[in-house]
Amino acid sequence: MEKGKASAIGSPWARLLLALPRPESLTGYLGRGLFRFLLTLQGLGAFTLITLGVMISRFGGARRVIRPLIRQEIARAGLRLLPMFLFMSAALGLLVIGQTVSWLTRVGAMNYLGTVMVVVVVRELGPLTAALLVLARIGTANVIELGTARAMGEVEALEALGIDPVHYLVVPRVMGMAMGVFALTVYLILGAVLSGYLWAFLQNVPLRPRQYFHQLAGALNGLDFALLALKAFAFGFIIALVTCYHGLAQRLRLEEVSRATVAAVAQSVMACVLIDSLFILIYLVT
Amino acid sequence: MHDPDATVAEGINWTVNPGDYWVVAGLHGSGKSDFLMLTAGLMAPRQGRYRFFGEAMPIFDEARLKTRLRLGLVFDGGQLLNHLTVAENIALPLRYHHNLSRAEAAAALSELLAGTELTPWAERTPGALGRSWQKRAGLARALALQPEVLLVDNPLAGLDPRHMHWWLDFLDQLSKGHRLMQGRPVTLVITTADFNPWKGHARQFAILRNSALVVVGPWAQLETAQAELTRELLTERRQTG
C-alpha cells in the first residue's frame, strides 16, 4: 500500500540496522529487541490512525458493498463462534466455581460466591477469554487471508480499481470483530454465571438461586457494565487492527505469512493484556 | 514490484494521445509490469512529472478519483479477489463506486459476462478457472467502469491460439469502438515480450531496454530496426558463430 505506508520496518535505514551482525552483549541484544518493538509500535500506530481516518472519512461510503461485509464479519467473529463459546462458558463456570467453592466453604464465606463470579468472570476472565478465543479462531484467519491477498497482488488490484483497500478489507473486519467480541463476551459471561450456579448446585452448595443472583447484583455496579463494554470493544478493535496490520501493511511473500501470523498473535495477546491492566487502574482509582 | 528500491526506467519522455494503440515490449525482468503500474498511477515516479488528463499522478484523493477511474488496468494474471466469484469480481468496481445492489448491477454485469464469454464461469471462484479465463475476468472487471484508457499487462502470455486470437480481436474492437464501451474507442497500452502477434493490430510500438523507453513508431519502422533486442522481440533467432 504505497499511499499509506504504515510499516517502518521497510525503510532502508531500519533494514540496515536490523541486518547488522548480532551483538555479543546482552544489552545490545535487548537494545535491538527494543528498537524492533518501537518500530512495530510506530507502524501499528500509523496503521491505526489510517484506519480510523478511513472509517471517519468514508463513513457511509459504498454502503451497499461495505455493510454486507460488516454483517459477514459479525457473523464470522460472533455468530459462528457461539457454539464454542457456550461450551467455554460452561467450562469457565465450572473452573471458577469449582475452585471457589472448595476455599469459600473452608472459611464459611459462601455469601461471597456471587462477588467472586463478578470479579473473576465479569471483570477479568470473561472479556479476556472471549478476546483470546476470537484471536485464535478469527484473528489468525485474518492474517492468513490478508497476507495471502497481499502476496497475490489483490491489494494492488483494489487500488487499480480505485477501491481503498483499508475501507474494503480492514474496516469491515475491525467493526465486525469489535461487535463480535462484545457480543460473545456477554454470552460467555451469562453462560459462565448460569453454569456457575449449576456446578455449585451439583456440589451441594447450600445456596438458593435467589441468594446467588442477589450476591451478583450486589457486587455489580454501573461502572462494571460500562467498562465491560469498553474493554470488549477495545479488545476486538485491537485484535482486528494488529492482525490486519500484519497481513496488509508490509509486502509479504507467501512463505512469510506464517511468520506474520505468529507475530500478530503474540502482539495481540500482549496488547490485550496491557489494555486489561490499564482498566484495572480504573477499578483501583474508583 | 519485486524491488521497490530499483529504478525500472529513467529519462522517459512519452505522450499517449487519445485513440492510440501502443504495444511496449521488453524481455522478462525489464520492468514492463512496474512500468505499467506507474502508468496506472499505483506508484509515483521518483523524479519528474506524470500527468493524466492534465492531473498530476498518482491520484489517491477522493476529489480527483473520477479522473483516475478513466483509466483501467488489467494485470498479467487477472489478479482477481479469490474469495469472490467471477461475477462478484466483475461487479465489484461498479457496485462500490456507484453504490449499487447486486440486482441493480445485474444488467451491466450480464453484458460484461456475455461480451467476454464468461457467463458459464460467472458463479465459479477464480481458483476454479484456468489462467486464460482469469485474465479475461480481469479484463471484464477493468471494463466495468467504462475507462477511456486501458492498460493491459502481457495479455497473450501463456495463451493457446484460440484465446490469443480472441484477445487480439477484442482489443482491436476496443480500439475502434466496442459495444461494451458504447462504441467509444478506447486508448490502449499493452505490454508484451513478443512483438509478432501484434502485427496488423497495434499502431505504435516501443521497447523497454536498458532502463529506457525507446519509442520505435509504427510496425514498418520496427521491421527495419537493426537493434539486436528489437530483432529478438520480433522472435528472430540470434545469429551465432
Notes on the protein architecture:
The complex is a heterodimer of chains A (286) and B (241). Chain A has 10 helices and no strands. Helices cover 81% and strands 0% of the residues of chain A. Chain B is α/β, with parallel strands linked by helices and 241 residues long. Chain B has a single domain (21-233), classed as 3-Layer(aba) Sandwich (Rossmann fold). Helices cover 33% and strands 15% of the residues of chain B. Chain B is built from 8 helices and 8 strands. Chain B has a 6-stranded mixed β-sheet, with helices on both faces. In chain B, strands 2-3 form a two-stranded antiparallel sheet. In chain B, helix 3 (86-98) crosses helix 4. Classes of the chains: A mainly alpha (286), B alpha/beta (241). Chain A binds chain B through residues 2-3, 10, 12, 57, 61-65, 145, 148-149, 152-154, 156-163, 168, 251, and chain B through 1, 4-5, 37, 40, 42-44, 58, 60, 62, 65, 68-69, 72-73, 75, 77, 79-83, 92-93, 95-97, 99-101, 138, 141-142, 145.
Radius of gyration of chain A (CA) equals 22 Å
Tally of separate domains of chain A: 1
The strand order across the widest sheet of chain B is 4-5-6-1-7-8
Low-confidence runs of chain B:
237-241
State the assembly state of the protein chains: heterodimer
Helix vs. strand class of chain A: mainly alpha
Number of helices of chain B: 8
Helix run count of chain A? 10
Our estimate of the beta-strand percent of chain B is 5-15%
Share of β-strand residues of chain A: under 5%
* Count of individual beta strands of chain B: 8
Average pLDDT score of chain B: 89
Q: What is the ordering of alpha helices and beta strands of chain B?
A: EHEEHEHHHEHEEEHH
Shape of chain B: globular
Give me the secondary-structure category of chain B: alpha/beta
The coarse overall form of chain A would be globular
Instruction: Please outline the major beta sheet of chain B.
Output: 6 strands, mixed
Helix content of chain B: 25-40%
CATH fold-level assignment of chain B: Rossmann fold
How far apart the termini of chain A lie comes to 44 Å
